[in-house]
Every structure is written in C-alpha cells, then in structure tokens.
Specification:
Elements (H helix, E strand, L loop, with lengths): L3 H12 L4 H13 L4 H14 L3 H14 L4 H13 L5 H14 L4 H13 L3 H17 L7 H14 L3 H9 L1
Helix pairs in contact: 1-2, 1-3, 2-3, 3-4, 4-5, 5-6, 5-7, 6-7, 7-8, 8-9, 9-10
C-alpha cells in the first residue's frame, strides 16, 4: 500500500474482466485498513468512472481531493466528471482544472481538460490557448495521438465560435 506503483498496477488489474472484481475488492480492503486513502480513493474513483458509475466515482474523487489537496490527477478527473455529468457544474469544474494546472503546469491532459471545460463555457479565446498548447504534444507523443480527433473537433468548435470558419474547416478535416 505504500508503493503507488503497486496500487496503480491494481488499477490496471481492476480494468481486466478476469481480475477486476478481486482487484477492486483488494483496493477496498486496503482503504478500509487506512492504507494510502487518498490514492486508493483516486484509483477507485477513476475506475468507477471508467465503468460508468459516475456518481460513485465522483464521491471517491471528492474524497481523494479532500485528503490530498495537491493531488492534481484526482482534481483533473473530478473536474472532467463535473463538466460532463448531468447537470454539469462547469464553474466548479473550471476552478478545479485551473487549480490542478497550477500544480502540474506541464501536464497536457490537465491543460486539455481545462480547455474542454472552457469550450463548454463558450470562452473561445481562453479555450483556444489551452487546446492549441496541447496540440503539438498530442501530435508528437504516440500514447496521446488517439485523442487528436476529439481535440481537432473541439478546436473546430472554438474557431467557429471565434468566427473563423476557415480554421474550423481545417480542424474538422484533420
């Protein structure tokens, strides 16, 4: 439990259909024993989001952030959850994403989260800055390339909002 890498391996096992239930059970046992509570809450919350249990996932992420106010990844995941659930809480989501970005300014996924939230708030200029900042990183890093279509679609929406249909068209083509 004191090894974050081991706990992250349990999260990977939780995604596997064969080992998922036992991995989640082990994480819950560790949490009940008081082992690395903020990290286990973050792992369980993220896992629950991945399997579609948004409310339970959000509860765990809320607790992770309360227990560790420096947990940028938990903040980011909570921000995205608040922005995408019904009804969304875009104001709080933006505040959390901005706080997370302040903790890890070089993290492209955190910056994209804030950019996507700004798109939802129709704050085009600010969204453009965040999303264009991550575009070269997503293009360059193989693990992030799968997110490029969504990023280009968001940039197209931003450019439409800014009245630049030519750039919107270019991003939609990509």
């Amino acid at each position: 439990p004191s090894n974050p890498q081991s706990l992250m391996m349990l999260m990977d096992l939780a995604r596997d259909p064969e080992t998922g239930a036992s991995a989640v059970e082990r994480l819950q046992e560790l949490l009940a024993a008081g082992e690395s509570p903020w990290l286990i809450h973050m792992i369980l919350g993220t896992h629950l989001l991945e399997v579609g249990e948004t409310e339970k996932g959000a509860e765990h992420l809320e607790q992770a952030v309360k227990l560790n106010p420096q947990a940028a990844v938990a903040m980011n995941n909570l921000a995205w959850t608040l922005a995408t659930r019904e009804p969304p809480d875009l104001e709080r989501a933006e505040a959390l994403a901005t706080r997370a970005l302040g903790l890890v300014p070089g993290n492209p996924q955190v910056r994209e989260t804030r950019g996507q939230i700004l798109v939802k708030r129709k704050r085009w200029k600010e969204a453009l800055t965040d999303l264009e900042a991550v575009l070269p990183i997503y293009s360059r890093e193989k693990a992030l390339r799968k997110q490029l279509p969504k990023l280009h679609e968001s940039l197209a929406e931003v450019y439409e909002g800014l009245g630049n249909s030519e750039m919107a068209k270019r991003h939609r083509q990509l």
